[in-house]
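Chain A, query sequence.
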Amino acid sequence: MNDPVLGFSHFLSQADNVARFILALMLIASLLTWGIVTDRLVNHWLLRRRSKNFFARFLRIDSFTELMKNSEFDQNDPYSRLTRNTVDTARHYAACDASHVNAAGEPSEFFTRSLRQGIEKETEQLERGLTMLASIGSTAPFVGLFGTVWGIYHALLSIGLSGQGTLDKIAGPVGEALIMTAIGLAVAIPAVLGYNALVRRNRVVLSRLDAFGHDLLILAMTGAPLERSVRTHIRAVHVAGDA
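Chain A, predicted structure.
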């Protein structure tokens, strides 16, 4: 007498609508995870390349006046966007009359608020998709566990109705139900690892953006760049690109 072939294909043939729904949900979550992680990693790779090009041009700027005359800003690079924001802020501040300027506060306060808003916008861009990754990483194991409980319930119910409670009749259906737990973990682990990797990369980029914003503030207030800080940024970008 030949035993029935057990495995994932047999589990699919025996699964009900609830189990199939959970499997479809896990498939969608897995596709979202890999899509977000791939998109964000490619974005960080492009960011490094664009940042190198930006700092290569920025190093040749000797004054804030020269920076304001330079209209070539790459809107796909966060450093360029922050620089463009500073230039637009300076032009807006210079165009206002005395009464409005006094109401806006000291130039340093005005530029600081503008730079802080610019960095917050860059933070929103960098963190796009991270909430979804965190949600998938935290809920996928429990969804898989629910699928396992549901599968074991139906397996035991089927065994009870058939009246065959031997070990060989129990091990197969219960083992197939445990596949749902494995699927939940297979979805959750890449999501958690991808989330942690992207959070670390974002933290590094935001730290450099914050330091660069300070350099822009010095450039706007004094009219001259802080040469040492600019070279430090360039070295940091090159080191990150080589890592």
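The chain has a mean pLDDT of 79. The first helix runs from residue 8 to 14.
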